[in-house]
Structures are given as structure tokens and as C-alpha cells.
Amino acid sequence: MGSFLAAFRFLTNIPVPWLKEDWQGEKSHLDFARSLGFYPLVGLIVGLILAVLGWVFSLFLPDVLTAALLTVSLVVITGGLHLDGLTDTFDGIAAGHKSFERAQEVMHLPGVGAIGVLAAICLLLSKFAAIVSLPSGSFITGLILFPVISRWAMVYAVVCYPYVRSQGLGKELKGGSAKASLWLATIFCLAVCVILGGWAGLLAMFGSWLLIMYLASFFRRRLGGLNGDTYGSINEFTEVAALIFIVALSGYFS
């Protein structure tokens, strides 16, 4: 239970009143290190919240406004955590032609550069367009499914690719029974994809997996390895990719 709550607290901006604010204790660090396997479950909760909001919004509002509010709602639910990682990643890539060290230095600066802002704008517009393109028959299914796939994507990236720093949250996650967490996350994500989308859901997950491998390899070449910011970027890109696959395969969802 502690590991799930650690994942929920880290990945969302939703307050958990009974969860202590102190993360310095040994048990808290252990729970965080083991939280990786619960990321897709947190994604399912996020997706269910979006589905409820989408259903309510669609009762009173046109499709375009509903999609816009859902895009904003997702940023609010996550506290902009992954979007912040996206902006830092692309600022680092823009500066990374000099050295990996310079890229990492830029990524840890408190401000946001022009390239990071442009990346965030392009991604949010793409996400909005993908949501507004969801057909009515797969609207609720798509809203539930894409956060599950994208949170699994982060688990895959953490476990299967090297972490660029000697210390950090990603290093802590990699040390917390990472392979077992990947198996747990993968089985859960596969089950949700099959239940909600049948073989079309599996294709959406498979297509997203191909993107994950490309992005992780790209970040490794340009930045020297992966870190927390690149995990956030992978989540954001996978959200859009999963939505696009769901739109493309919407006629085949069970």
C-alpha cells in the first residue's frame, strides 16, 4: 500500500490527507523505490478521472471546448510534472551540441528556455487535437487507456535504459526491484489494453513501445543517458502517440 501511495503522490497533484509529508524516513524511501510497478495503476486512476470529466463536459459543451478542458485538466491533475520534464529536456537538447555536461547543466536551471516553451506548445496542441479527434464510440475508452500506456512507458524507460547521473530519483527507482516492477507494470498494462480495446488496444501499446525505444535511444545519444526530465518527456510523447493510435484504430476497439 505504501508503494502505491508513493507512486500516486509522486505522479499526481491530488492530495492524500493520510499520507505524511515527511519523505526522509527509511520506509518512505523504500516505498518510493518500489513504487515503479504501480505507475500504470496510477495512470488508470488518472484516466478514470479524465473519463468522468469528459463525460460531464460533453453533456453541456461542444467537442472542441471539451477537449481543451480535458487537456488543461490533465496538466492540473499531474501538477505539470511531466510537462516540466519535457521543457527541460528540449532546453538541454538545444544546448547539448557542446557537451553532455552542458546539456545536463541547462536541464537543471530553474528557468525555461524558448525551445522548451515551443516543445510544450507543440505537444499540448497535438494532445488537444488527438483528444478532439476521438470518435464518440471510443471517447471514454481512449481517455482511460492512454494514461495507462504512458505511465507504463516511463517504467520501461527507467528499467531498460541507463540513468545518466550517479544520484537522483531515477537512480533510486532503478534500485527498487526494478525488473519485478517492470513485469508488474507490463502485465497490468497489457490486461487493461486487452479488456478495454482487445487487439486494437494491444496494437496501441505496441506502437507506443516502438516510440519509447526510439525516444530513449535518441535521448541517450543527445544527452548521454536518461534522467527524470527525459522520463517526463517520454510520458508526454507516449500520451500523444497512444491517443493517435486509439484514434486510428477506433473502429476496431471492442
Task: Note the main sheet.
Answer: none
How many individual β-strands?
A: 0
Task: Give the oligomeric state of the chains in this entry, treating copies of one chain as homo and distinct chains as hetero.
Answer: single chain
Secondary-structure element order, as H and E? HHHHHHHHHHH
The overall number of domains is 1
Structural class: mainly alpha
> Unreliable runs, pLDDT <50, ≥5 residues?
none
Strand content: under 5%
Separation of termini? 32 Å
What is the 3D form?
Answer: globular
Rg over alpha carbons: 18 Å
What is the count of DSSP helices, taking H or I runs of 4+ residues?
Answer: 11
Question: What's the pLDDT, averaged over the residues?
Answer: 87
Percent helix, as a range, is over 70%
What features would you describe in this structure?
The chain has helices at residues 2-11, 26-33, 39-60, 63-78, 81-95, 100-107, 114-132, 139-160, 169-174, 178-223, 228-248. α3 packs antiparallel against α8 (139-160) and α5 runs antiparallel to α6 (100-107). It has one domain. It has 254 residues and is mostly helical. The protein is built from eleven helices and no strands. The mean pLDDT is 87.
Which descriptors would you attach to this protein?
globular, mainly alpha, 254 residues, 11 helices
List the helices and strands and how they pair.
Blueprint: H1 2-11, H2 26-33, H3 39-60, H4 63-78, H5 81-95, H6 100-107, H7 114-132, H8 139-160, H9 169-174, H10 178-223, H11 228-248
Structure, briefly:
The chain has 254 residues and is mainly alpha-helical. The protein has helices spanning 2-11, 26-33, 39-60, 63-78, 81-95, 100-107, 114-132, 139-160, 169-174, 178-223, 228-248.
